[in-house]
Amino acid sequence: MRRNLGTYLRDMAGDHRNLAYVYADGLRTRRMSYAELAHLAWQSGEWMRRQGLREGDRVVLWAANSGEWAAVFWGCLATGIVAVPVDAQSSQEWVNRIVDETGAKLLWQHRDLANLRRSVANLPAEPPPGEGPARDALAQIIFTSGSTRGEMHFLPELSPADVIQSIRERRISVLSTVPRYLDLLGAEVARGSRGGWTERLAASGQGHFLRSWWIFRDVHARLGWKFWAFVCGGASLPEETEVLWRRLGYAVIQGYGMTENLALSHITEPGKNQQGTVGPELGADSIRKGLLAMGVGSLAVLL
Q1: Which CATH number covers residue 110?
Q2: Distance between CA 203 and CA 123 in Å, rounded?
Q3: Which of 35, 60, 108, 120 could form a disulfide with 104 if both were Cys (CB 3.0 to 4.6 A apart)?
Q4: What pLDDT, in 10s, does the model give residues 247-291?
């Protein structure tokens, strides 16, 4: 089990062939391999440490997306420095408020990132000393368009097997997730299931959900007998993923209405759930677009 997300850089460091980022820099197109990203991230982290920053200190990233932006962000993850990403189009006044609110000790702007490679050229491109931040260390703080305070995100590395174990041990009944992770959980369940997977799936699609539950009782034992449903949103759910979990004997409840901190704001009522449905119709009078207290042109979802 990984200690923190920064350990991914060790995996990236040997990959010189595959591209991590392709991004525009004026009229030029720049490319960055995974190895380049890892090395630049380690150098960025070392540079910040040499400026006196320590684990838990806040750093604001106020610049457009680029490979250098990503390198600084990953440098923060590797060293335990807390990243505070801010939309590049934000006003100076808004950024000043964020700096004050978080107590940030460093502000990265476009000109800093443009000179990043020169600034860190002579620094070691290797992992920081020690084990790095703990699994439950604060990783980033995100200020959304309507926020008055930042949303704190803790980002431990949880494998699908870890999630399944937690569902069982904590006696979880419903899991809210996104389609991609539902795919990963399905693959993990298939790997750990007893034989005859394909034949059992075919048989499960021919009867009542209790039949499905009985056929895949080994899966239900692994996830815990109390667990019964997934609530899924944030992206389109592939039909085959929904069919898989239904044949395993679980309810898959879709929804829509993603915000910065919420995967969905409207879901299908469990008693009215049917395959492929994504939730009740959202009337025009429930949507208001305009100026909010802390942002411009934001979409307000009124619950």
Answers
A1: 3.40.50.12780
A2: 60
A3: 60
A4: 999 988 887 665 544 545 556 655 555 565 555 555 544 444 433
